[in-house]
Amino acid sequence: MLHLIKNLLSPSPPATDEIPEETDLISLTVAVCILLLEVARADDEFTQEEQNHILQTLQVRFSLSPEEARDLIEISTAKREESFDLWRFTNRINEALNPGEKRKVLEEVWRVIYADGTLDAHEDYLVHKLARLLNLPHSDLIAAKLKALRDEREE
Q1: How much is the pLDDT for 155?
Q2: Which of 77, 98, 126, 137 is the most exposed place for a label (fewest CB within 10 A)?
């Protein structure tokens, strides 16, 4: 899988117009990873709790080994540094996921925010921005937040 991620991010275009389905999944995986990293760094603190939560989320949600998850974070960080904004990543998610699936992504964003136990103003602003970019109504934003908080209390 890591080989596919690196191929996706290489500067050379694919040989055909068709992109294999697995490559689509990987680009979606990179897009989701970038959103999780972006919100973790929104308050200028990337805590160990946030790092651990993102690693665990990537492993569980995308069936990655710990090493693959770390590689994905490294690749996603490099991809984000090449971009001016988040639109291309949220657009990829919008193309691939239905509203319910996008709400699950937003739930993961909220879980990263609360991984360190606090909600910073920058994190709050960013999660609202992400909900708008994902074309999700405010009610879905609140539902995702409440679900993330409920799940955290149950753990």
Answers
A1: 72
A2: 98
